[in-house]
C-alpha cells in the first residue's frame, strides 16, 4: 500500500506490516484514505486529533449559519388607516430584525369577490416598506386568503445579523 506521512509527503509503497510498524514507532494511527486506489493509500495521523478538529470546524460553521424566521401578519381588506400603520410598524420591526414576513389578507363573506382591494393593500404595504424589504412572493389568492412574502434587503439583513452577533458577545462577556 502507498504510505503518506503525517506532514503529507509520500513515503512510498510499503507492506502493511511495515506501515503498521512505522505508525507504532511514531505513535500515530494508520488511516486508509483511498481504499479503491491501486495500491490503496494509507496515511499516518493522530486520528483522535483529526476527529476533534473536524468537530470544531463543524461547530464553527453552524455558528456562522444564518437562521431566517418567517413571521406572519394578518390583515383584513377593510382595515382602518391607523390599524394599517400599526401593522406596518410590526412588519417594519420584523424586517429590521432580519426576518421574512408573510402578510396574509383574510377575506370574509363577499369580500372575496374583490381581491383587487387586498392586492392594493399589499402593494401599498410593500411600497411603504420598499427601503427595508422587497417582495419575495407576489400577492397570490389562496382560497379565502391572499398571501405575499416580504424579505429584508441584504443590507438590512446584514445589519440585523451583526447586531444579533454583538448582543450575543455582550451577554457572553457578562457571564
What are the defining features of this structure?
single chain, 175 residues, alpha/beta, Ubiquitin-like (UB roll), Translation Initiation Factor IF3, 2 domains, 4-stranded mixed beta sheet, 5 helices, 45% helix, elongated
Short account of what is shown:
GO terms for molecular function: ribosome binding; translation initiation factor activity. The chain has 175 residues and is of the alpha/beta class.
Describe this structure in words.
The chain has helices at residues 16-25, 47-64, 81-96, 115-128, 154-174, and strands spanning 2-4, 10-13, 29-34, 41-45, 70-75, 100-106, 133-142, 145-152. The protein has 175 residues and is of the alpha/beta class. It has 2 domains: 2-47, Translation initiation factor 3 (IF-3), N-terminal domain (Ubiquitin-like (UB roll), Roll); 70-156, Translation initiation factor 3 (IF-3), C-terminal domain (Translation Initiation Factor IF3, 2-Layer Sandwich). Strand 3 (29-34) and strand 4 (41-45) form a beta hairpin.
Secondary structure layout:
Elements: E1 2-4, E2 10-13, H1 16-25, E3 29-34, E4 41-45, H2 47-64, E5 70-75, H3 81-96, E6 100-106, H4 115-128, E7 133-142, E8 145-152, H5 154-174
Subunit structure: Monomer.
Pfam family, one: IF3_N
Biased composition (Basic and acidic residues): 164-175
Amino acid at each position: 500500500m502507498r504510505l503518506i506521512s503525517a506532514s503529507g509527503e509520500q513515503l512510498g509503497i510499503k507492506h502493511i506490516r511495515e506501515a503498521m510498524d512505522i505508525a507504532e514507532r511514531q505513535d500515530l494511527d494508520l488511516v486508509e484514505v483511498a481504499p479503491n486506489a491501486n495500491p490503496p493509500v494509507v496515511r499516518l495521523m493522530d486520528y483522535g486529533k483529526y476527529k476533534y478538529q473536524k468537530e470544531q470546524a463543524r461547530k464553527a460553521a453552524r455558528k456562522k449559519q444564518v437562521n431566517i424566521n418567517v413571521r406572519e401578519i394578518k390583515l383584513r381588506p377593510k382595515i382602518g388607516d391607523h390599524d394599517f400603520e400599526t401593522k406596518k410598524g410590526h412588519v417594519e420591526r420584523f424586517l429590521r430584525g432580519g426576518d421574512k414576513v408573510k402578510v396574509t389578507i383574510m377575506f370574509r363573506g363577499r369580500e372575496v369577490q374583490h381581491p383587487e382591494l387586498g392586492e392594493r393593500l399589499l402593494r401599498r404595504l410593500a411600497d411603504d416598506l420598499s427601503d427595508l424589504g422587497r417582495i419575495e412572493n407576489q400577492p397570490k389568492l389562496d382560497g379565502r386568503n391572499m398571501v405575499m412574502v416580504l424579505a429584508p434587503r441584504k443590507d438590512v439583513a446584514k445589519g440585523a445579523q451583526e447586531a444579533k452577533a454583538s448582543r450575543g458577545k455582550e451577554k457572553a462577556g457578562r457571564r
